[in-house]
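input
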Amino acid sequence: MSKPTHKIILFIIFFTLVLSSWLRAEIIDKINIAGNERISKETIKMFTGVTLNDDLSENDLNIILKKLYNTNFFDLVSVKIKNKVLIIEVKENPIIQNINYEGIKSSEILQDLKNNVLLKSRSSFNEVLLNKDKKKIKKFLKDLGYYFSKVDISIEELQDNKIDLTYNISLGEKAKIKKISFIGEKIFKDKKLKGVILSEEYKPWKFLSGKKYLNESMIKYDERLLKNFYLNKGYYNVIVNSSFAKLTENQEFELIFNIDANPKLFFGDLKIDLPSDFSETNYLDVQKFLKKLKNEPYSINRIEDIVEKIETITINEQYESIKASVNETIVSNKININFKIEETEKFFVERINIFGNNITRESVIRNQIEIDEGDPFNQILYSKSLNNIKALNFFEKVNGEILDGNEFNTKIINITIEEKATGEIFAGIGTGTEGSSLSFGVKENNYLGRGIMVDSNLSVSDERIKGKFLVSNPNYKNSDKNLDLSLDATSIDRLATSGYKSNVTGFSIGTQFEFLDDLRLGLSTKNIIEKIDVDASASAKQKKQDGNYFDSFIGVDFLYDKRNQRYQTTDGFFSNYRVNMPILSDTNTLTNTYNYKVFKELYENNVSTLSILFKGASSLSSDDIKLSERLYIPGKRLRGFETGKIGPKDGNDFIGGNYVSSINATTTIPTFLENVQNVDVVLFADAANIWGVDYDSSLDKNGIRSSVGVGIDWLTPVGPLTFSFAHPVTKESTDIEQTFRFNIGTSF
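output
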């Protein structure tokens, strides 16, 4: 067949279809509706969108049919035209009188489930929606760990075209995570990777934690955590190939992550591409920082820091309608990055809508939005606003949408969030050569939806009982400064080692905020009432301190933090100085503390640290400081000696000193026991000194104590076990050695 003939035939077919559709079209003189009981005829007419004298074709009838079915009010619908009369016959869906959920005892789970389904009481029944709800319930229960749940549905027909709908739910046992494994070219040990993810292995005593149950949403989150971990270690092309759960015996699962790290990449040429009218001098500090990063391992945190610095400068220079992008190219083992700033068409924000906040107050969310209604739309500020809301950690999901506004050159911003549980209950127990400890606490991070954190906790050890109640507002009166109020009570029993017992009750008020880049400033005031009881066998000078005290202090805290990350730090340093100044006090004790720690990765998978501590406590009025204010070397700062049993002694009591200093060096040995997945080995060297006895200088024992040794961190089935073997190198005659030390703990 020739091409011209083929085209002619297609044209004839098309013309015939159009003509037949036009010939079948009729002008409607009347609309008849039959079969409706609850839904009025006028309402049905409104659903169709048809009015008298409309010219309707077969295609129009199909559209009317679809519209009526989409209302979910009708089980059957027929639409036809006869003698210019539009005839609509319907059979209404029954009304759901009641929805019953059998088999779920937890009121919290039941309420969340009801909020999750589509069909509601007093709504029209729909078979399609019923099947969707069944799937939703199964998925909802699966996310809670009920992988073996069953959902059966029964429908009871009532009078007046009504029904009762019942979900018979058998939850079954929760799916427990028996084991977590990592396979593939994962580079890092299982112990480290288990510390990255949220999911954890099931243990019979973990009755509080919900992370021991299989949860698909949490597994997806674990995948993102793993990917970010590798990206921050330089593994730009890391692939978490798959994560899957393998059913084992006793209805338990093995959670397996398959990871391919791929070769490590390093920063190459880093450049900023600015519009022609931007001043490059504003970005000189960023340019210097980019040069320092060259040949350093790639890190996604570094990229985010650079972008934030560029955005801050750009916004401060009042470039309003801009966007920032990152273009990356890989050459060999180097990654070249171009940070591009572009001017965009100018729009204004007409309105910002927030949806889905059933608990959290809208003001809490709006406080995180960097752009206001009426402002020029700025892509950088829009993205930063979404990140700020996510950083609250109050929400399961945060999504943003930009729509054209009603006015010319305007935009509407829609932010949709999904709430999640923000409360926590924790409990833990530990034991070792330093004694035993028990802790318990309840915490709410979004109290009454106000964005306020409320925390109460109790810890008990061999010589100390401490309880604390804390209320923290992270954005007090929209100032970007947090306000902390706390009440605490502490009982310290050192009668056996230091000859005294202390009971302290107090309250404090404080604030913290970013004073400069990476520098946080804290200001606080603390007021305490203390009772000191001294042992009958104590010296006469110690007995003088028996009694009641009231003290009021002002505290100042400077923290300069340049760590690459706060958890599992591998690079950077922090420097912290704290001072407590007496305002009203019997002894007028001034306490200064300086703490410095630097982290460095000397070679692949190694982390080495060097830390320095100095602390001093002395009276501004030349009085003797209280026994409870005297200082002791922390146990983790000096291994090889018993904690609290070095330094000056008064009779048989170790009384501490006015000054303490220490220096500590550690380095991990990843090549030692490298095939043992749950063990890390570390070498350490400690040196410390404690001196100064203001009430009797003859008791002073000023001398350097030092030790070297090896430590092992072992993630056992019970919980993390740490033990160390230390050899004292220098000491004083009164010091008590402890060459072996261990501690094991677990959470519930």
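quick obs: Confidence is low (pLDDT under 50) at residues 14-23.
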